[in-house]
Amino acid sequence: MKHIYFILFSLLFATATLANTATKDVKTKLNLKQELEKTIQQLKAEGKLNTEEAKNSLVRLFNQPKKKDSPSLLKNTLKSAATKTHKLDSLLVERWNESTGKLEPSQLERWTWYDNGLGKMWELYDLDSITGQWLPNDKEEYEWDENGNKTMHLDFDPDSVNGGWQENSVGNFNFDANGNEIERIVQHKNQSTNEWENYKKRESAYNAEGEFVSTTYYEWDNTNSQWINSEQENYEYNANGQITYLDLSVWDTTLNDWIIDVYMKYKYDNNGNGVGGEIGAPSYNLYFKSEFAYNTNNNETLRMYYDWDVATSQFIYSYKRETTYNSNNNPVLNTEFNWNKSTNKWVVNYKIDYLYDAQNNLIYRERNDWNTTSSEYIINWKTNYQYNSNGDLTLRESYHWDTITELWIGNYKQTHSYSSNSELRYDYVWNKITNDWLVSTKHNFVRDADGKIIFADKYNWDSTTNKYIGDYQESNHTDTKGNYLFENRMEWDTLTNGWKTNYQIGLTYDFSVEFDAIMFPPENYPSTHLSNLKDVIRYPNMLLQATYSEQKQGQLEVTESGTAFYSEITITSSPDLIQSELRVYPNPTNNFVVFEGTNSSIIAKVDLFNLQGQKILSKELTNGNRISVNHLANGTYIYLLIQGENILRGKIIKH
Fold first, then answer.
1. Alpha-carbon gap, residue 448 to 109, rounded angstroms
2. Which of 203, 314, 456, 543 is most solvent-facing, going by the fewest CB within 10 Å?
3. Predicted structure pTM score
4. DSSP 8-state assignment for residue 589
5. Residue-wise pLDDT tens digits, 480-491
6. E-assigned strands of 539-603?
7. CB neighbours of 111 closer than 8 A, spacing ≥ 6?
8. What CA–CA distance (Å, rounded) separates 127 from 124?
9. pLDDT tens across 21-31, in order?
């Protein structure tokens, strides 16, 4: 099931990930460290290094980060905050309640900002369905220096005894003149003594080029009231900023020294290609080595793996792959070998041949396995490809050789046909009785002018009725500016023999506000609905709401909804009404709204509009600056607060 809060925040925040470009290099390092730790875990779990995944991890790590970005990029980001006209204040997530059969508020996230566009506070609340009150879930507060480096991170937990929040942990950060983090100290709050207690510390060092060279981790020893060594990372680089060495070490309290747990070494040629590497886990007496060679066009021609021989304490051959290319840099032959320890010779495993047409399209692949008994190649499988005059694939079919029947057996087959903006694809399965292809499914695809699929369906062939039976249909629509508007999925109902909507996703925008004019949390700003975002999706306008609808008792109902609330950043010479001092609460509400922070000496008026732009309420603020909304239909409304020459705009939700 697709969760609407994930969809909404994918749209809202994936475009805001450039706010802290100075951390890009560090995050790449962290990805590298995670990859290495994954390899370490595999070593410890399996007790060996000759698995394909462990070997490939070394290959993947050859794409190393370059030099650190200039901290001036972050300063430019901070300056850009002055160009923003709106800021995100909160997100309301509503979910379907099976008991009441209604869409009801579930979670609320709120953000508070500094004037420079950096986050000041983030809060998460859960709605108590019994009392109707928002209960604290999580809260964080931040402080930053003049360069946009986070210097303090304070975590809160719900106070289950007294209500509200209680401090849980705090992190304090120090940076060098180049904006590199050099120290991080984390403390926990002792709830019994109400005192802060040291917990962990991290110190980092950089070379003259700003490259990350070491990090030492410490833990606090309560008994002796001092920091003790825990773990350490070390990095070395070549002149091109590529990592040539790294290790992860642990502190040995017996030897009172660092012990390398795992290390990695890298070698490169003059073109920056990785030509060799070594992984070692000395504590486990496990090692692995690789070598690579390239032709003058930087195509990999040789790959060799070595395993560690414990008996002789040296590397021995394990695996080899040789690749040759044609004049167009296409591989024409891959041959793979395994090392025979008994004969100390390479033994062919298999080879793959490739053929291309005059347009450089791959038209044939064939694999032959080496038979050690007969000392000859035995064909294993083959794949054919065909194309139209535009170079579009029209046929792909694959077969494997049956050594018992000495016949070709089909694996899979696909045919493609094209029109101006659509594609029709047929899938086939092999009939072992007739030794021929049988149609299995057909797919239709329609693309827009940019080549994006806006419609797709699938039909399955029913051999009993000799007819196609519907499986699913998917469609989506993006407006001419690039705003994603809706997505619809339908599935075939075998009872009615017709299409039935499975789910719908709808998105609503404020087309008068450009995305670039909105102040969003940066990538490192927390959100429970922000985690694990990988793709950057950009939409030109301000996203207000995203809804997810599905079938409930035969009807399509909105079962999840995410609504974003923004406020206008107003710069005015008059001190009478300042945006940051205005509070609009409760929001969401079901009865009334209070506008707190207005100047009581100047008459203030509130105009309320629906999302279609129709004014549905206009009222001067009296009676404690409160207006009643209990007569309004549930939904999202835009308010204009007018006081003197100042006009502030925002959104409220009635539920």
1. 36
2. 314
3. 0.72
4. B
5. 888 889 999 999
6. 541-552, 555-568, 583-585, 592-596
7. 87, 88, 89, 90, 119, 121, 122, 521, 525
8. 10
9. 223 333 343 44
